[in-house]
Amino acid sequence: MNPASPPASDPVHPASDITVRPVISRKELKLFIRLPRLLYKECAGYMPPLDMEQNDLLDPKRNRIFRHASVRYFMAWRNGVAVGRISAVVDGKALEAWDEKIGWFGAFDALPEKSIVKALLDAAELWLRDQGMARMRGPVTLGYHGESGLMIEGQTEAPMIGTPWHPPELHSLIEAHGFETGRDLLTFKLDLTDDLDDRHIVPGALKPGQGKLGDVTVSHLSKKQITAQGEVLRSLYNDAWAGTYNFVPLQSYEMTGLIEQLKLVLRPEHYVQIDHAGEPAAMALMVPNIFDIVRDIDGAPSPLDWAKLGVRLLSHRFESARVILLGVSHKVRGTVLGALMPSLAIDELIRRRATLPYKSVELGWILDTNTPMLNLVKRLVPEPNKIHRIYEKEIDQTTH
């Protein structure tokens, strides 16, 4: 359901001096999108993302999740000033994948006050209940392939593309409202130092195309065939993560939208595809960190700022990147070769540091229950630098 045109029957939820109202106009949607930078501008460690990036994530005209999901946006107000926001989402593809009536809440940003947090969560819960949901999970904005989790640790770490930021006080306020931890999502910062070669992660120094891996090959991203390779990536990604916690299959139109957003910054070195006997068996996709080139620019750039960004983008002045997709096909999962695939993919990305300007790469998010991947990553980085948490709660089915 388009948040720009909610029905007139949408309720108002008062809590103390807080009023929560649905977003009903393009003007309110614009404020909804830029609200975090107004709320957190004085917070240590916070850096506002570009409005353009958030528009792609939250505007119904740009995010293709609206093709299969019903979404409602709410903002909390006090004395005419917006003090918080939240989204409530019923994702049709998620309901198909899980066969459970679970709705998401997300885009969750607020001043860390009990009355504000309660009012926002109550509004999302009531709307999800009215859509027939039995349980709510989040924060997830707006779906599995967007931004996930509430930041628990890492507020003063360098910001990273696609990674939500929250003040440290918010998590206790969510937990006080009856939410329980679903999963923790862990991020590890891998510094691309010279000694990485001495800490080689591939057992036995095995190499694709050699010895026991003679029928294993590695390919790059081809910009000329990016759409076709995007479909290969989507199929492999969906196959690799099917059945895992909170996973929703990536749709073809979502992959097309992702490619359109990333086309300007993607290079052949950003994509690793590992084939076994001519068939895709594992993949990894890395994206440069947009925050590296906007540190001195406001979230809503001026024309001069846009010119600066253009120069920095064309010259690829990035210092860090994030691995956003990593997976292994079920065809080799559970085999010795399958166990090697994540090591091979990460090793290939590390070796490409010779042609990319990055000083560090973030690996995340990794589920706290993904023991094989955690064991692999912790050989290089013992502790996560950021932790995001997914919460869950049974929806109260009684009348509010």
Features:
Aminopeptidase, 16 strands, single chain, 2 domains, BcerS-like, 400 residues, disordered N terminus, 10 helices, alpha+beta, 27% strand, two-stranded antiparallel sheet, N-acetyltransferase domain-containing protein, 14-stranded mixed β-sheet, Acyl_CoA_acyltransferase
The 3D shape can be described as globular
| Helix-strand category | alpha+beta
CATH top level class name of the largest domain: Alpha Beta
Q: Radius of gyration from the CA trace?
A: 21 Å
Helical fraction: 25-40%
CATH architecture of the largest domain: 3-Layer(aba) Sandwich
Unreliable segments of 5+ consecutive residues: 1-15
Task: Let me know the CATH homologous superfamily of the largest domain.
Answer: Gcn5-related N-acetyltransferase (GNAT)
InterPro entries: Acyl_CoA_acyltransferase, BcerS-like
Organism: Asaia spathodeae
Protein name: N-acetyltransferase domain-containing protein
Describe the 3D structure.
By secondary structure, the protein is an alpha+beta fold. The chain has 2 domains: 13-184 and 390-394, 3-Layer(aba) Sandwich (Aminopeptidase); 193-358, Gcn5-related N-acetyltransferase (GNAT) (Aminopeptidase, 3-Layer(aba) Sandwich). The chain has 10 helices and 16 strands. The strands form 2 sheets. Strands 1, 2, 3, 4, 5, 6, 9, 10, 11, 12, 13, 14, 15 and 16 form a 14-stranded mixed sheet that branches. Strands 7-8 form a two-stranded antiparallel ribbon. It is globular and about 70 Å long. The two termini are 22 Å apart. Residues 1-15 have low confidence and may be disordered.
